[in-house]
Write a structure and sequence with these properties.
The structure holds 2 protein chains of 2 kinds.
Chain A (H helix, E strand, L loop, with lengths): L3 E4 L2 E4 L5 E7 L12 E6 L6 E5 L3 E2 L7 E6 L2 E6 L8 E7 L5 E2 L3 E5 L1
Chain B lengths: L2 E4 L3 E3 L5 E8 L7 E7 L5 E8 L4 E4 L8 E5 L4 E6 L8 E9 L3 E5 L3 E5 L2
The chains are: A mainly beta, B mainly beta.
Chain lengths: ~110, ~120
């Protein structure tokens, strides 16, 4: 099984400041088709998860451009350029190269 | 509008069977995989397995293989997750989601709470 490890597991951010979450996979997520299947989700309190980023760096429809994804191989990062109050929740990375596996989640709160 | 609507909350006793549902609308149900995700109380997301309603091909996480059964009835655009004998440890929120390789899980249901208690 591919293990996804997120750091930090929690962070507290002042509105308007940047935030960054790391996700490392136990195997490369580069597929033979040339694409890398790494996704980011946000689960706001009391809600179903929602897709933010697919294929490492592509923002899903309606996702604000303050969210960006980067990385390759086994190391990936989600960045929020200027955190807003509505960004509170738990962020998950997920791999899609061998079945699918989520990271443990990163709980982000607003100071 | 693309939607997945899940069945309502369930309260069951250990040993009982259960089948929860996820009905898709607004898209071609037989052309997309449907996945199931578990979230135990206060815990993270766990990918359980997926089904392709077009031909009922299924794939399971090793952690859930043999513990649950995923099925679908394409005639009514509905996917199912079922247990033959529930345990207290099955208490969780269960989400269904539309599944593609490119987008991962792009459309989610509202979740079904399952409580197993004697």
């Amino acid at each position: 099984d591919i293990v996804m490890t997120q750091t930090p597991l929690s962070l507290s951010v002042t509105p308007g400041q940047p935030a960054s979450i790391s996700c490392k996979s136990s195997q490369s997520l580069l597929h033979s088709d040339g694409k890398t299947y790494l996704y980011w989700y946000l689960q706001k309190p009391g809600q179903s998860p929602q897709l933010l980023i697919y294929e490492v760096s592509s923002r899903f429809s309606g996702v604000p451009d303050r969210f960006s994804g980067s990385g390759s191989g086994t190391d990936f990062t989600l960045k929020i350029s200027r955190v807003e109050a509505e960004d509170v929740g738990v962020y998950y990375c997920m791999q899609g190269i061998h079945l699918w596996t989520f990271g443990q989640g990163t709980n982000m709160e607003i100071k | 509008e693309v939607q997945l609507v899940q069945s309502g909350a369930e309260v069951k006793k250990p040993g009982e069977s259960l089948k929860i549902s996820c009905k898709g609308s607004g898209y071609s149900f037989t052309s997309y995989w449907i996945g199931w995700v578990r979230q135990m109380p206060g815990k993270g997301l766990e990918w359980m397995g997926i089904i392709y309603p077009g031909d009922s091909e299924t794939r399971y996480s090793p952690s859930f293989q043999g513990q649950v059964t995923i099925s679908a009835d394409k005639s009514i655009s509905t996917a199912y997750l079922q247990w033959s004998s529930l345990k207290a440890s099955d208490t969780a929120m269960y989400y269904c989601a539309r599944h593609t390789r490119s987008y991962g899980l792009d459309v989610w249901g509202q979740g079904t709470t399952v409580t197993v208690s004697s």
